[in-house]
Amino acid sequence: MEHSTKHPFFEVTPLSKTLAGIIFIMMPFIGGWIGYNLAPVKVVEVEKEVATRTVPPEITMLGEPTERFVGTIDEVRTVFEHKDFTSYTLIKAGVSISGELNTERGYKDDVDATVFVLDWQKPEAEQKYFVRLTGSTAIQKLDVDRELVAGAALEYEAEPYSVPN
User: Fold this and answer.
1) Helix (H, G, I), strand (E, B), or coil: what is residue 71?
2) CB contact set of 74 (below 8 Å; sequence gap of 6+)
């Protein structure tokens, strides 16, 4: 009869069972810690910012002008009014002309001047121009070549209405 004897190293004992259970439970935690700390590249999450376009609310046109300029051009009393830099009224010798207005920044060496372009969507021959130079309260008429017309200035007139409190 052959007797098979196991080497004591291969015997299942209560100590080996306990040690196997501890290793079985601890290995996932140890592996996770090693993978997290020794990974070659760390993943960084970046929040993507999406640009959105907001549409401004429509501006309601008030009955009163934003600014009014009064003076004499070609020996005729002239009044220039604009509303919110989008429309204008030009009253010359009692005749009122209204239309669309556009503004441009800068005139020759004056980078902060404002050029008023009346009827800007019409052909250039039908457009009229005024300029308000930096530091001035008056506007001056420009010819078709955008040169100052001598003696054709309109002074700013204080608004004839008061703002309610």
Assistant:
1) strand
2) 152
Tokens 């008061």 belong to 162
Number of Cβ within a 10 Å radius of residue 67: 18
Quick one: how far is CA 1 from the chain centroid? Answer: 98
Contact predicate 109/98, CB 8 Å: no
- Tell me the pTM: 0.56
Counting Cβ atoms within 10 Å, is residue 141 exposed (0-12), middle (13-18) or buried (19+)? buried
Q: Cα 111 from chain centroid?
A: 21
* Those residues with Cβ within 8 angstroms of residue 77's Cβ, 6 or more apart along the chain or in another chain: 70, 71, 92, 93
8 A C-beta contact, residue 85 and residue 101: yes
Q: How far is CA 2 from the centre of its chain?
A: 94
Mind listing the pLDDT tens digit for each residue in 32-45? 998 888 877 766 77
Please report, for the chain, how many H helices and E strands are present, in that order: 1, 8
- Residues 63-121: tens digit of each pLDDT: 577 788 888 888 888 888 888 778 888 888 888 888 888 888 899 898 989 888 888 88
Measured distance CA(146)–CA(138) in Å, rounded: 17
